[in-house]
Design a protein that fits this description.
Elements (H helix, E strand, L loop, with lengths): L1 H22 L9 E5 L9 E5 L8 E2 L5 E2 H10 L7 E2 L4 E2 L9 H8 L5 H10 L19 H4 L2 H14 L4
Antiparallel strand pairs: 1-2, 3-4, 5-6
């Protein structure tokens, strides 16, 4: 019984720590991360460990929050984005929503000159914050992708769209 309670409490805490550690940079360059761990309430000083900064080969666009464009293509397909959007890298030719080959860059500029990745992420999480010109209206794109997609899926999807959008 104690083992089950230990695992039930340890796993969520460990996962939360992992998630914070992996997603706290939000696309900023990696830096040395220091973790402080205090176990129990003894009078012994807290244990501090420091991990060295490591660099790994990246297949991602750092401006997109560290997403993986290849994984984002699968998110695009799984969420049926092609039914509404034209996007050449996905072989998509939908006409209900903006053309993702060109619209994100021009719309990001029109929306206060936002960074492209930030604009795309906002457009997925809150599609009515900026409505693209060309006959589109609020309420057409589902507003629940910010809650139905995990942070990883969202970052991957943003990376995929950034990687295929023209910057003109």
């Amino acid at each position: 019984m104690i083992w089950v309670l230990f695992v039930a409490l340890l796993f969520p805490a460990g996962f939360a720590g992992w998630a914070v550690g992996h997603y706290s940079s939000l696309g900023k360059p990696s830096a040395t991360v220091v973790h402080t761990l205090t176990i129990g309430s003894t009078s012994a000083p807290a244990t501090t460990t420091s991990a060295a900064t490591t660099t790994t080969a990246a297949t991602t666009t750092t401006a997109s929050g560290g997403g993986n464009a290849a994984a984002g293509k699968a998110v695009f397909a799984a969420n049926n984005c092609a039914s509404c959007h034209t996007f050449t890298p996905a072989n998509a030719n939908g006409t209900i929503g903006p053309n993702l080959d060109t619209a994100p860059a021009s719309d990001a500029k029109a929306d206060g000159n936002m960074a492209l990745a930030a604009f795309i992420k906002e457009s997925i999480e809150n599609p009515d914050a900026y409505v693209a010109k060309g006959g589109y209206t609020k309420g057409i794109m589902p507003t629940n992708f910010g809650t139905t997609l995990s942070s990883k899926q969202l970052n991957d999807l943003v990376a995929f769209i950034v990687s295929g959008s023209s910057s003109s």
